[in-house]
Design brief:
The chain is mostly helical and 213 residues long. It has ten helices and no strands.
């Protein structure tokens, strides 16, 4: 039995597919802020929702970065550039077309999202990730107090009290009455003293073990 359909019947008419809408910088900002708010709500809902908050914050970063760091006209494309291109950012978010007020709002919120993401990783005790997120926030604003504080806490939890104190002192200079910073500094100094005392005892013991041969 011949089951081959006639060529004319087999050829389906081309569908009229509407092009995907191009998202402009105001769309990116709106979506970024929405994702940030969803992340905040998830974080406030407790430990069980921390990973949900992390996902929303990552999505917020992707939108906000297309404004703060628009895709380069040339050179190697990054993952964020690819995201921006898929959203039509090339047509709508060129750096020359974005008002300074919008860039400033996107930047301040991107800093906050990085710092909030650091708080999520701190809750999960992923200290290296905390430091990475804080560094990204501080690259945009070296005087961001929460990021300096959270980086200091993460360094302290890694046992790097001397480095932690450097960051915490920077934070305290900017917020001299912040009780959390002061408390963490006292804890770091106490650990540093304990470490120094322990080292002295160990070194002293080495020289009290009888004559050398």
């Amino acid at each position: 039995m011949d089951t081959a359909a006639p060529a004319a019947a087999a050829a389906a008419p081309a569908a009229n597919v509407a092009p995907a809408p191009v998202l402009k910088y105001d769309d990116h900002l709106k979506l970024g802020l929405e994702k940030k708010d969803l992340g905040n709500n998830a974080f406030r809902s407790g430990n069980d929702h921390t990973n949900e908050a992390i996902r929303y914050y990552h999505e917020a970063i992707l939108y906000l970065q297309t404004i703060v760091r628009p895709p380069a006209a040339s050179g190697k494309a990054s993952a964020n550039d690819a995201m921006a291109a898929s959203l039509g950012a090339g047509a709508g978010t060129g750096s020359k077309s974005i008002p300074e007020a919008v860039k400033a709002e996107a930047t301040s919120n991107l800093i906050a999202v990085y710092s909030n993401l650091a708080a999520c990783h701190a809750r999960n005790e992923k200290w290296a990730r905390v430091i990475d997120c804080c560094n990204k926030a501080l690259a945009l604003d070296p005087k961001h107090v929460k990021s300096l504080y959270r980086k200091g806490v993460a360094l302290a939890r890694q046992g790097r009290s001397d480095h932690a104190l450097v960051e915490l002192r920077k934070a305290l200079d900017l917020a001299p009455n912040d009780a959390s910073i002061i408390k963490e500094m006292h804890a770091c100094k106490s650990k540093e003293r304990e470490s120094n005392e322990r080292l002295k005892k160990e070194m002293g013991g080495m020289f009290n073990r009888g004559p050398l041969y």
